[in-house]
Amino acid sequence: MVNRRRTFLRHLSLILASVAGFLAFISLFRQVLPAGYRKDKRIKIGRPTSFPLNDFTYVSEHKLFVYRDHGGLRVVSAICTHLGCVIEKSDNGFQCPCHGSCFNEKGEVISGAAFKDLTWYRLYKDYDGQLVVDLDEAVDSDYILATN
Ligand code: FES
Question: Which residue range forms the structural domain that includes residue 20?
């Protein structure tokens, strides 16, 4: 009888440890996922005027580049379409430090390992004037949120 109880408790503790390990793994996995894969697909990135004119601004928290000019704003993913590294701005577009893919300023692949263009997202203004990026809605690279 005592042996059966010990066996039962041993099995129970093994199951509880497995469940705790699985939950810890899921939690860690969610932390390392790029922003685009997280549950909350609509993210606030600030007010339009917080982005300098005629330039791409990197929003590191969400791995996005925001471009603002007198016509409005656009937002493109900073996740390389090859294997998911974070791209960097280059003189004539974007470059991936991992395997050398290059993209022009429209996010189109011009060289390297990537086959797919960068993803542009719909942008809108919330009731409080903040910009919201909808990561569920990809748009063409010429999509622009007019600010005037
Ligand atoms: Fe960007 Fe491979 S992950 S080129």
Answer: 1-33
- Average of per-residue pLDDT across 75-99: 97
| Whether the CB of 9 sits within 6 Å of ligand 1 | no
In a domain, 55, yes or no: yes
Check pocket membership of 102 for ligand 1, CB cut-off 6 A: no
Q: Specify the pLDDT at position 38.
A: 53
Give distance in angstroms: CA of 29 to centre of ligand 1: 20
- Confidence grade of residue 44 (pLDDT, cut at 50, 70, 90): very high
What atom in ligand 1 is closest to the CA of residue 113?
4
Cβ count within 10 A of residue 129: 10
What global pTM score does this model have?
0.73
Same domain, 109 and 91: yes
Q: How far apart are CA 78 and CA 104, in angstroms?
A: 13
CB 111 near ligand 1, within 6 Å:
no
CA distance 75 to 143: 9
Nearest CA to ligand 1 atom 4: 99
Average per-residue pLDDT for the chain: 89
Structural domain count of the chain: 2
Closest CA to 132 of 40, 32, 2: 40
The pLDDT value recorded for residue 24 is 73
